[in-house]
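With this grant's support, we have settled on a layout for protein records. One resulting record is reproduced below.
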Amino acid sequence: MPVELNHMIVHARDNRESAEFFANLLGLEITAEWGPFVAVDLSNGVTLDFAAIPADRITPQHYAFLVSEEEFDTAYAQIGQRGIEHYADPHRKHPGTINHNDGGRGVYFVDPAGHLFELITVPYGGWASSAHMRHGPIAPVA
C-alpha cells in the first residue's frame, strides 16, 4: 500500500472558528466534529482536524496548499473582502500583494490561531507530480 497523508491536527484556540475561517475561505466543508476536533476535508482525501488547545500551547506552523487558478482567484477575493492581512512572502516584508514564484501565484496569511497559511498555484520548482494533475499539467519553468 502506498503511503499517503490521511490527516493533520491543527492546534487552535477555538477549533470551530479556525475550521470555519479555513473552510469558508476555500469553499470547503466542515465534515465532522468529535471531541476537541473539527474536521475540514481537502480534495485529496486529507483532513485538517482543528483541535482546541490552550492558546499558550500553540506553536505557529506553516501550512501550504496547492490550489487551482480559479480557487486562488476565489480565495484571494475573499481575503480582500474580509480584510485579511496578506503577504507575497513568508517573512511578511511585502504586504498586500502576491508573488509569482515558479510561474504561478502565491499568497501568505495568518489564521486565527497564528498559523501561517500559504496558497500556491504551482508547486515549488514549477513541476507537478501525478497527485497534483487535477490542476492540469504544469511544465517546469525554464
User: Anything to note?
Assistant: Confidence is low (pLDDT under 50) at residues 129-142. The longest helix spans residues 69-81.
